[in-house]
Amino acid sequence: MKILDAELIASAPQIDKLPPSGLPEIAFLGRSNVGKSSLLNALARRKKLARTSGTPGKTRELVLFRVRTDRGDVGFVDLPGYGWAKVSRKERASWGKLVESYLAGRPELRLAIVLQDLRRAWSEDESLLLQWLATKNVPGRIVLTKIDKLKLMKRKERIHKLTKEIGPGFGNPISTSSQKGDGLDLVWRTCLEYAFPREEEPETLIPPGDDSFAV
Length: 215
Description:
By secondary structure, this protein is an alpha/beta fold. It has one domain: P-loop containing nucleotide triphosphate hydrolases (Rossmann fold). It is built from 5 helices and 7 strands, in the order ββαββαβαβαβα. The longest helix has 17 residues, at 89-105. Mean pLDDT is 86; it is low at 201-215.
């Protein structure tokens, strides 16, 4: 699989302000500062596609990107993070409604990727989110981020523990490091499986470029 280009299409404070993309969309969501922007940049092979920040809560809108690949174009949607305590309850509720409105009402949505920092404990918020996705029949997968921040043995322990806590229904979590590139090929493979089911996968029309990695 080869990445040809990536660009910002739109950002919107409300679902009805987000223009139709005509693309199969993959939504990325998780706690504030979980590493969403870094993962999006790593997947798109672009350093500054999604804005990164050490300050939680920077993503406050629906942010839509187009990523062109030799398998077809895919929409990546960066959703506002949840669980950040340093904003008002009213603002957190507003972000929650925005995320729900996208996940429940966007016809282009094909997959919701829930990010979990490997170093952080699995919480009731994540469990409730997975239950909500299941009740809305939204396909979901778990991606573990920042695995390079832990030594190998501790990393294995955390992955095993989180896998048990997550439970069945969402597949085995995918372990990733945006810095090291670990797991990115598997995330891409998963995205493409949902974006282009085998019978719908478009033919390759664009000659392959140099910006590639195996999937």
